[in-house]
Amino acid sequence: MRLWLMIWIVLIACCGCRTHLSLRNHTIQTASTIADLHYQQVIDNIARYVEIPSTVPSIAIVNNGTVSVTDQSTFGAAGTHAPTLTTVDQIGGFPIFSLFLNPNVARGLAENWTLAPVTDNDKLRRMRCAFQYVVNQDAGSEECVDCQEWLAEALALDEAEKLDRDLPRGWFCAGCKREVPKDACFVGRYRDRFVWVMPWVMPWGMDGLSRFTLTVLELATTDVTPKNRIVVRHYDAEDNLEGKEITTIEADTENMRRSSSETASDPTSGPSAASPRSPKLNRNAPLSPKQQRRRPGAGSLMTPRL
User: From CA 25, how far away is CA 52, in angstroms rounded?
Assistant: First the structure.
């Protein structure tokens, strides 16, 4: 009896000592699911675009998350004393004094992610063009004019021909359910259409999924800075257009915001600190004869000759 009592006490004491270890392990395991969430969203949207090329993507960004582990342990004991029991009852298994133990160990685990769905019209339009470009659909249709130029501008590329680096093609396979191999890394589904990624499919494979996922995340979280364009048209003497020059000016809003914040936080900076204030003059003080001669209009006051 004493041995079992000691074992229960040790188990209850050890449960509280390992709470931080359980929290660490569950936090690491929860954080490792972020990449899987992004991968699965992208591959599901690829299946959607393979089935319906003119659809709109559905993307949500992991914004916040919490992991909490709570351990609770209680130990109770209740004793009964029945001195009126007969000898026959005691032989049958009912002792005069009985001790009942009631140990209780409970653990509460909560893991959750907070998702922020992408609802901005411009971001959805750019992501739609990106998915259409990857699945080899026409990105220059009437509904999406100059999509490649929009993507190059959003990804800060000099030319639209460099999109293959951030938007690779040919890294996924599409088919029905019975065609999906067992060793596929990720499998996406939309209705009866399945799309899967193999680890070593040439030329991209899993690397293509990773590149395209990073591009989708960039398009979903980055706001494109508007560009100001200055158009100069040249006309001849007969008012005929000879040519025009287009100059693009990018507004560096980040540097402007940083410089304004530094000026506001530094009282010694600014035009007031650069030029010290001149001392105030007392206009009611009497002027000397020399100062009176230097005053404006003093030379026009002449003493008439007699």
Answer: 41
**What letter represents residue 246's amino acid?**
I
d(CA 5, CA 176): 60
H/E segment holding residue 214: helix 206-221
Angle at 279 between CA 277 and CA 280, to 5 degrees: 115
**Burial of 199 (C-beta count, 10 Å sphere; 0-12/13-18/19+):** exposed
Residue whose token pair is 């088919």: 175
Digit-coded pLDDT (tens) for 177-207? 999 999 999 999 999 999 999 987 666 789 9
| Count, residues in the chain | 306
pLDDT tens across 97-143, in order? 666 667 777 889 999 999 999 999 989 999 999 999 899 755 445 55
Which is nearest to 11 in space by CA: 70, 74, 100, 77? 74
CA distances from 70 to 12, 17, 64, 80, 170 (A): 14, 12, 20, 34, 47
